[in-house]
Q: What sequence folds into this?
């Protein structure tokens, strides 16, 4: 009985050791660079762009509300894009499994 128990334990151990590489090969992983722009830079760019665009739109439309709002909207979009394209980005590597 003791020999049978030892043989079953060894056989089970051998199967589990043989199965580990097969499980590891089933999942492949890749290293991916992930970059994100700082949120505060985008917010600042949006606000500054909206203020500048609103002032410019007000001047072009001779004090009209429509020109001010249109300039503020265009300035906000431009300021956000400028802030996203420049400056420091936080980058790190992630491992993704397939």
A:
């Amino acid at each position: 009985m003791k020999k049978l128990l030892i043989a079953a334990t060894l056989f089970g151990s051998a199967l589990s050791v043989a199965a580990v590489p097969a499980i590891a090969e089933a999942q492949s992983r890749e290293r991916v660079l992930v970059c994100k722009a700082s949120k505060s830079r985008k917010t600042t760019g949006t606000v500054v762009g909206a203020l500048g665009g609103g002032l410019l739109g007000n001047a072009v439309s001779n004090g009209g509300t429509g020109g001010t709002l249109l300039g503020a909207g265009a300035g906000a979009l431009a300021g956000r894009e400028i802030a996203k394209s420049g400056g420091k980005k936080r980058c790190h590597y992630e491992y993704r499994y397939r």
About this structure: The two ends are 45 Å apart (CA to CA). Strands lie at 29-37, 89-97. The chain has a mean pLDDT of 79.
